[in-house]
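Give me the fold.
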Amino acid sequence: MKQTLVYTPSPLMLAAAGIMITVIVATLLLLRFLPVQTSRSRIRKCPSCGSTRIDLYMGGYLGKIYSCPDCDYRGPVVLEFEIPQEATRSKSKSKSKSSASAE
């Protein structure tokens, strides 16, 4: 006679699977209701000298390392400022007005 093996999950495994499904569903629901990020202008500044000429030196799974050519800073910390969209729009309008008046 052949014996067939039947796998019966333990109650602990069933509970863990239920929790994982609950977390996934909750995450998907939260992502659905979060506001969509529009394109925003961001400025990065060196924490040492304040220069805006900050470059990405290295980046990977563990994080990013930035470098500043002005003061030779290398590190993971940079100051990041977000420019409101109204400010970027007003700058572009003033540039277009000044270029139109120069012609």
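The longest strand covers residues 41-45.
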